[in-house]
């Protein structure tokens, strides 16, 4: 839950077992999720760091982890981009970021050890690394374990910025990518084109897929089954992309909503290949986790 200033209560747990009372500035995606699902409660707080009011929203905890975890929202559509299937991602103050990042890994129910350093790049910010650690170690939901889905990458060439344009905000040439999940990639693309007709998305890839998979809507279909934990997969991609690139925070002129799955990524940071590498790495992770349940 965000306060009226767009801040999120730190989800960390203090040594006495109570929730941290600090507030941190919420990410763009969390503000978008909050605006779609709830009305922010007024908060008279004036300081940068404030205490939570008694009776504030509770947060579920991973047994034995000491980390506060977000709850999945009820009634989510399996291919909807307008709601975050896993709710608002937990966020942390500087003190709990440092504490969480001391943990090096966790063990799955089948006994397999997962080292965070195998999946989380050391080049990410400390905050992003802490949020990814939480997302990695959160137990999967029954729905996410049961459903098979895909992650897709669209490129929106009309939103690309040249180096000249990018220099105004301190960045170089950038490309715009939409990264999301769906149980039917081509149907999802058709739905988006019908609703947001000014967009001209080019499907660059989706995973899992066979080499040489045709990507033309209306003439193609997925050739291999999707993977379980696609909601977790999408969240992991978004948490990393938000740190690597810049999340687009603009209202769509067609549907009047904000597409939370769109990111600007500098070409000098790898552009499409960097995005694809992120999607592929987190696919491998969720496949390992799914096999443990």
What's a concise summary of this model?
The chain has 293 residues and is α+β, with helices and mostly antiparallel strands.
How does this structure look, described?
Residues 21-86 are annotated as: Disordered. It holds the Pfam family T5orf172. This protein has a domain at 148-291. Helices cover 29% and strands 16% of the residues. The protein is built from eight helices and twelve strands. The strands form four sheets. Strands 7, 8, 9, 10, 11 and 12 form a six-stranded antiparallel sheet that branches. It has a two-stranded antiparallel sheet with strand order 1-2. A hairpin with a 5-residue loop joins strand 5 and strand 6. Helix 2 (94-100) crosses helix 3 and helix 7 (230-244) runs antiparallel to helix 8 (271-291). The longest helix is centred in the last third of the chain and has 21 residues, at 271-291.
Secondary-structure class = alpha+beta
Oligomer: single chain
- Percent of residues in beta strands? 15-25%
The unreliable regions are 31-84, 164-168
Helix % is 25-40%
Sheet with the most strands, sense and barrel status = 6 strands, antiparallel
Number of strands: 12
Shape: globular
**H/E series, N to C?**
EEHEEHEEHHEHEHEEHEEH
Question: How large, in whole angstroms, is the Cα Rg?
Answer: 19 Å
Please report the distance between the alpha carbons of the first and last residues.
Answer: 30 Å
What number is the mean pLDDT?
A: 80
Continuous helix count: 8
Break the fold down into its secondary structure elements and pairings.
Layout lengths: L6 E3 L13 E3 L2 H10 L22 E2 L6 E2 L24 H7 L4 E3 L5 E3 L10 H12 L4 H5 L1 E8 L7 H4 L7 E9 L2 H11 L6 E6 L19 E2 L1 H15 L1 E2 L14 E5 L4 H21 L2
Antiparallel strand pairs: 1-2, 3-4, 5-6, 7-8, 7-9, 7-10, 8-12, 11-12
């Amino acid at each position: 839950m965000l306060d009226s200033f767009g801040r999120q209560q730190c989800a960390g747990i203090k040594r006495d077992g109570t929730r941290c009372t600090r507030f941190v500035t919420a990410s763009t995606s969390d503000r978008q999720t909050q605006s779609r699902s709830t009305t922010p409660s007024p908060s008279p707080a004036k300081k940068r760091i404030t205490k939570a009011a008694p009776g504030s929203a509770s947060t579920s905890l991973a047994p034995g982890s000491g980390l506060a975890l977000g709850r999945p929202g009820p009634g989510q559509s399996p291919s909807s981009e307008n709601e975050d299937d896993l709710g608002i991602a937990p966020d942390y103050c500087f003190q709990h970021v440092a504490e969480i990042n001391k943990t090096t890994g966790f063990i799955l129910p089948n006994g397999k050890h997962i080292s965070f350093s195998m999946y989380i790049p050391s080049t990410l910010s400390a905050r992003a690394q802490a949020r990814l650690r939480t997302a990695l170690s959160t137990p999967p939901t029954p729905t996410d374990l049961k459903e098979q889905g895909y992650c897709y990458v669209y490129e929106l060439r009309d939103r690309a910025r040249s180096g000249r344009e990018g220099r105004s905000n301190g960045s170089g040439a950038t490309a715009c990518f939409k990264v999301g999940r769906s149980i039917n990639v081509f149907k999802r693309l058709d739905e988006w084109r019908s609703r947001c007709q000014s967009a001209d998305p080019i499907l660059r890839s989706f995973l899992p897929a066979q080499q040489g998979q045709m990507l033309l809507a209306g003439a193609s279909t997925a050739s291999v089954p999707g993977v379980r934990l696609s909601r977790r997969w999408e969240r992991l991609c978004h948490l990393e992309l938000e740190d690597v690139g810049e999340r687009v925070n603009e209202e769509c002129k067609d549907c009047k909503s904000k597409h939370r799955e769109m990111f600007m990524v500098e070409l000098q940071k790898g552009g499409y290949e960097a995005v694809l590498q992120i999607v592929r790495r987190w696919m491998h992770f969720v496949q390992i986790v799914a096999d443990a349940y």
